[in-house]
Description:
Blueprint: H1 2-17, H2 20-25, E1 30-35, H3 43-56, E2 61-66, H4 73-77, H5 85-89, H6 95-98, E3 100-101, E4 107-109, H7 123-134, E5 142-147, H8 153-161, E6 164-169, H9 173-190, E7 194-202, H10 205-221, E8 227-235, H11 239-245, H12 250-253, H13 258-275
Helix pairs in contact: 1-7, 1-8, 3-13
The chain binds adenosine-5'-triphosphate (ATP) and magnesium ion.
Adenosine-5'-triphosphate binds at residues 36, 39-45, 67, 149, 200-201, 234, 236-237, 240-241, 244, 259.
Amino acid sequence: MADQAESLRRMARGARTLDHPSDARGRRIRGLAVASGKGGVGKTNTVANLAYQLAAMGKRPLVFDADMGLGNVHILLGIAPRYNLQHVINGEKRLEEVIVPGPGGIHVLPAGSGQRAFSELNGPEMLALTAELEALEDKYDIILFDIGAGISANVMFFCSAADEVAVVTNSEPTSFADAYALMKVLSRDYDKREFRLIVNSVKSATEAETVHRRLEAVADRFGLNIAIDMLGWIALDEAVPAAVREQKLFSQRYPNSKATASIKRLADAVLTSTTAGLDWGRIFSAR
Ligand SMILES: Nc1ncnc2c1ncn2[C@@H]1O[C@H](COP(=O)(O)OP(=O)(O)OP(=O)(O)O)[C@@H](O)[C@H]1O
Ligand SMILES: [Mg+2]
């Protein structure tokens, strides 16, 4: 296990060095990993709706379903792509042949579902994927990675590969504890020091801020030495499960819902943090 973690660390570092020529060209693509530790807290809905809003604001987002083996972005969108990430990893398809259009002009890189053999990437596969992603630099402004639940090697890889990690939690202690555990492993073993926080399924900014402060206090108490910046919060809203059941994005199906208002604020926050100079222009690079 320790050996595996070390080789992954080396792999992630190796991947980061691949982007050296593009910084000089001022590449404008950014990777945001949306993770949570605990399953079912709203990562996929956040990523897909955020992409939809960013597209509505004139950006070119790619939704990367990084939940390999149990990917379900395509189910949320009601599409049935013929190919997925596993075909790329098998060497059967190029990344751009697998990407499909979604609602509102977003693009989606679907993951497979139920193919256990491919669910964990090995080192060479990680490097090959990194190179494929770099070839997308002119096509997208931002890649939103929908990260699987848990703290598997794949979760670590995609989180360490992206510029920024946004951790999703709700106000339940179980989700809170897993968000903390995820940040702990990423900071301890993968040198991630800065996290963005998205508090989902709450009633107000005040409730979200309480969760934020509690998480900061726990990180402090256990000497984690990390920064947790609030990126935004999403209202607890019946429009979310209603839209999921219809296999539609809530921001498209229920544009006047509270959840949609939250996602619009979140999209603004993502763009604002970008223009404030938060490592815009790099995808696989150390901070
Ligand atoms: N803001 C919200 N208000 C109400 N219900 C919500 C909200 N966000 C998520 N949900 C409910 O939680 C369910 C799970 O959401 P989602 O699939 O986005 O979670 P996930 O973190 O991606 O799950 P997994 O870990 O399995 O990939 C949704 O189908 C919906 O029913
Ligand atoms: Mg999901």
